[in-house]
Design a protein that fits this description.
By secondary structure, the chain is α+β, with helices and mostly antiparallel strands. It is 45% helix and 18% strand. A hairpin with a 4-residue loop joins β11 and β12. It starts with 5 loop residues before the first strand and ends with a strand.
Length: 406
Amino acid sequence: MSEVRIIAPPAGGLDEHDFRDDLRAIAGNASIPTMLETVCMATGLRFAAIARVTDARWITCSVADHLGFGLLPGSELVVETTLCHEVRQADVEIVFNDARAPGPYKGHPTAQMYGFRSYLSIPIHWPDGRFFGTLCALDPNPQTLDDPRVLAMTRMFARMIGETLQLDTRLQNAEEELAQEREIADVQEQFMAILAHDLRNPITAVRAGLRMLKRQEADPRKLALIDLMDGSGQRMADLVSNLMDHARNRLGGGIVLDRRSDRPLTEALDQIVAEFRAVAPSSEIVVTFELPPNLDCDRARIAQLLSNLLGNAITHGTPDRPIHVSAKVTKGTFALAVLNEGAPIPESKLSGLFSPFQKGDERPNGSGLGLGLYIASEIAKAHGGRMLVASTDANTVFTFEMPACH
């Protein structure tokens, strides 16, 4: 065969006009090398390639070369010296068995330049009809290429390659959109973490002022108002705490535990119940705690978990029915449960109940951000445990379980 006139890529690699995306799309299709090898075996041609062809460029995208032709992905030929140039101009396939036999391609200068006698080139189109390039193959010996079955196969391969290009474009666009969404989400999470952090100090200051006023006030009506305001402040503090935990999880910090067993958990749980009794005096809270004095856990986090479950029960439970809170260790398992009566949680809501910004009911005026149950679930996971929920017409029970270590 004659020497191939290969154009070297410009210094520094391909520029923006060298179809990087097109080469990547072809290279990313694992089936194309098999297609090219199949074309070689079915036709007897020892060189086959996918070429990106425009009015000014001919670039190899993929190749099966059993001739030592010298082309690699990214190699370029002078487009005017190729028959693929004619395929693009007329948008027709070119197939001939022997360039020395009578016919329109007898003595064709391209065949003489590159030293081949048998040749085929099938157009490849984008799904919208635009011309992409060719599936081409050649050999210095004559071959029988006008077999209908061989042509049908190569046309099918060309069509499949074109369809792959569309899929790759869509995938690339989806990946770019996903990357942008992730970047926006990261900024939002950082903003939320900063906002939650900066809100803590003013809330703490407001609640400290309310406690000072309470010590100086004797009027029962004013004291009741101060308690109501302080309860609202506590609710704000809980929301900020949940926001910070959620942001920390999203930013990779996770729920941080301070596991200790030197103080009883019961004290921390009693404190949470006392706070809710003060904040929601109309809600009856029935407590049953049967715990060992030295349970290994993060007392503050378990108290936060109970606070979230109690707040949820008060918000969604029947107002005039008691809420039952229990905590015990049975057969090596610690279980903390909060039960409230009321309408059951819809079946459609159960699967996503512990996801962030999800709520268990359909009421548009429900308070909170939908983070309480999510944070409770994250605290449970951090302790090596889990959150469970059971909801019937009779009642709804949220249960935290974890291995009990003394």
